[in-house]
Design brief:
By secondary structure, the chain is α+β, with helices and mostly antiparallel strands. It is about 40% helix and about 20% strand. It folds into two domains: about 70 residues, Hypothetical Cytosolic Protein, Chain: A, CATH 3.30.1230; about 110 residues, Ribosomal protein L30/S12 (60s Ribosomal Protein L30, Chain: A). It contains seven helices and nine strands; from the N terminus they run βββββαααβαβαβαβα. A four-stranded mixed sheet has the order 6-9-7-8, sandwiched between helices. Strand 7, helix 5 and strand 8 form a beta-alpha-beta unit. The longest helix has 22 residues.
Length: about 190
């Protein structure tokens, strides 16, 4: 098993998943649960599946205290905090991908990138035209489609006012963005 595919057990469901599909929490110095989306904070990790219902269940049933073997305080709105942190992380990765030259931004550039067979991930604005999004997804066949962000959020991430279509070429940063987006998709609040 590759190093990045190490599995952890969810404290709420008891299921094991690769770390890339989990969210790590630690107990902070004031006995408060702290989310660790990057997985780098010191301390024993308390792992949950990257699903909003798992976070809410762990908070409601005091599973963090049970797993930590001590009384811990769970901040109010923990699931929303996790979603916000993951969203920010995803959008930051998009900005890094733009600076690394992995992005095509705008319908014409994404179509050209897709025609050349270089689109590994297609990021579509959730508030963009459904018909246009479907056309772009058809043009970038085989690409993973992510539609979790608004056009203003995508634009801010890539240095534009708005962005509806963003194509990402294959690479480590693109794979990391896709994995983080999957975690965010499981945790975000759905209207």
């Amino acid at each position: 098993m590759p190093h990045d595919e190490t599995e952890r057990t969810c404290i709420a469901s008891g299921e094991s998943h690769p770390k890339t599909r989990m969210i790590r929490f630690v107990v902070g110095p004031e006995d408060t649960v702290v989310v660790d989306v990057a997985g780098r904070l010191p301390g024993r990790g308390l792992w949950l599946s990257a699903r909003r219902d798992m976070i809410e269940t762990a908070a409601e049933k005091r599973l963090f205290s049970k797993a930590a073997r001590q009384a811990v305080e769970v901040p109010h709105g923990l699931a929303d905090t996790v979603a916000d942190l993951l969203k920010r992380r995803c959008l930051d990765m998009l900005g890094l991908a733009r600076r690394a030259g992995l992005t095509a931004i705008g319908a014409d550039k994404v179509r050209a990138q897709a025609a050349a067979g270089h689109t590994a991930v297609l990021v579509e604005a959730a508030d963009g035209s459904r018909a246009e999004r479907d056309k772009m997804a058809a043009a970038a066949r085989g690409a993973k489609v992510i539609d979790l962000f608004a056009r203003a959020e995508l634009g801010a991430a890539v240095g534009r006012e708005e962005a509806v279509h963003i194509g990402l070429a294959a690479g480590g940063l693109t794979a990391a963005f896709a994995a983080e987006s999957e975690r965010y998709g499981g945790v975000r609040a759905v209207d």
